[in-house]
Design goal:
Elements: H1 2-10, E1 74-79, E2 89-91, E3 94-98, E4 103-108, E5 114-119, E6 129-131, E7 134-138, E8 143-148, E9 154-159, E10 169-171, E11 174-178, E12 183-188, E13 194-199, E14 209-210, E15 214-218, E16 223-228, E17 234-239, E18 249-251, E19 254-258, E20 263-268, E21 274-279, E22 289-290, E23 294-298, E24 303-308, E25 314-319, E26 329-330, E27 334-338, E28 343-348, E29 354-359, E30 369-371, E31 374-378, E32 383-387
Antiparallel strand pairs: 1-32, 2-3, 3-4, 4-5, 6-7, 7-8, 8-9, 10-11, 11-12, 12-13, 14-15, 15-16, 16-17, 18-19, 19-20, 20-21, 22-23, 23-24, 24-25, 26-27, 27-28, 28-29, 30-31, 31-32
């Protein structure tokens, strides 16, 4: 029943009231944080290509680039046979994404031509990751796939016990992802053989973030887990007030994630103790984008928030006309977010003011990607869109 209610929430457009008077839970802020803040401007965060959901292994959704303020023009539109429920990934002149028509697509960015498509046995909502010439993703048909990124040829596939919506992360020859069968899986990237798996209390929609020693992910069982990334042993777990669909971000010595209990959380990455939490008016499925100063995320209360990443105090909130499931893409001056009001927004990170919006014919339910000054996003209008 919980899964059904969650899926219904994803497509709900019910009108709700907005809470404009939220404050951070100040008494829970750890002022003298003992964990030294990690540098966000690492090679992972500065990846030239947005090669995976949330851009880098730590899932900060941050790229080190200054973006133009002018309204961009549309240069790429490719239409599939059903709504597009994944976020695009970009690598070496190709944009990869999945569709509810059961297919994964590879599109040439310069020409908008289809290079190849691969048909699975179900809806694709797991976002692709491209590493070492291979594209990895899951499908609602219960299988996790590895394809040749150039040809689309199947290299291997692995069967789980239920549909896969979680997006994969890769570290040191291992691919990590969750399944609705309640397991986090770790496979050998070359062979697809199981290295280990870890069972939790309910399905896993959240996508894992990977640090130096640990892998972090949330579950519909309301817990955020930290596991030893090599052995799969539990290091700690934190219980939120409801299901966790938001995917965690690792930065500043903290783990940031949202929950259906309406809160955005920041935990100590070492011991899982809560540093702060901030309450919105509705569920937070949006996954945060984080730099050294800011934590950006959307809520089903129609608002897009920027909090102080260290204290949890709100800096500003931007009002849209629909629920926000999309996760933001962050640059040095602008942050991009989609809304179920059919718009992709570009917002000034300092002021929270709208710089421009691009309107399409249906919901922008998934998350944008940034690559070399170009912006890519998908919509329920069955299309992928490219702006520059």
């Amino acid at each position: 029943m919980k899964k059904l209610m969650f899926l219904l929430t994803l497509v709900s457009l019910s009108v709700i009231s907005c809470n404009s008077g939220n404050e951070a839970v100040k008494e829970e802020v750890n002022v003298e944080e003992t964990v030294q803040a990690e540098e966000v401007t690492t090679n992972e965060a500065n990846h030239v290509m947005w090669y995976k959901f949330k851009a880098n292994p730590k899932s900060t959704s941050k790229v080190d680039i200054e973006m133009p303020l002018e309204l961009p023009i549309s240069f790429l539109n490719y239409k599939t046979n059903d709504r597009v429920s994944t976020s695009p990934s970009v690598f070496k002149g190709v944009v990869y994404f999945g569709s509810s028509d059961f297919s994964l697509y590879a599109i040439n960015i310069e020409t908008s031509d289809l290079l190849w498509s691969f048909v699975t046995g179900g809806d694709i909502r797991s976002n692709p990751i491209i590493v070492d010439g291979v594209v990895y993703f899951g499908s609602s048909d219960k299988y996790f796939y590895a394809l040749d990124a150039t040809t689309g040829e199947l290299k291997w596939k692995f069967e789980t016990g239920d549909m896969i919506i979680s997006s994969a992360n890769i570290d040191n020859g291992k691919v990590y992802f969750g399944s609705y069968d309640k397991n986090l899986y770790v496979l050998n990237t070359e062979t697809g053989e199981l290295v280990w798996k870890f069972e939790v209390g309910d399905g896993i929609y959240s996508s894992p973030a990977i640090g130096e020693d640990h892998v972090y992910f949330g579950s519909f069982d309301s817990h955020l887990y930290a596991l030893n990334k090599e052995s799969g042993e539990e290091v700690w777990k934190f219980k939120a007030g409801a299901a966790i669909a938001s995917s965690p971000a690792l930065a500043n010595g903290k783990i940031y994630f949202g929950s259906d209990d309406h809160f955005m959380y920041a935990l100590d990455r070492i011991d899982g103790n809560m540093i702060w939490k901030y309450e919105s008016a509705k569920a937070i499925n949006s996954s945060p984008a984080v730099d050294s100063d800011n934590c950006f995320f959307g809520s089903y209360d129609y608002r897009f928030y920027n909090l102080d990443a260290n204290t949890g105090i709100m800096k500003w909130a931007f009002q849209t006309d629909g629920p926000i499931h999309s996760s933001p893409a962050l640059t040095n001056n602008l942050v991009y977010i989609g809304s179920d009001d059919f718009n992709l927004y570009a917002i000034d990170i300092k002021t929270g003011q709208e710089v421009w919006r691009h309107t399409v014919k249906d919901r922008v339910h998934t998350s944008p990607a940034i690559c070399k000054g170009m912006i890519f996003f998908c919509s329920y209008d069955n299309q992928i869109h490219g702006l520059k």
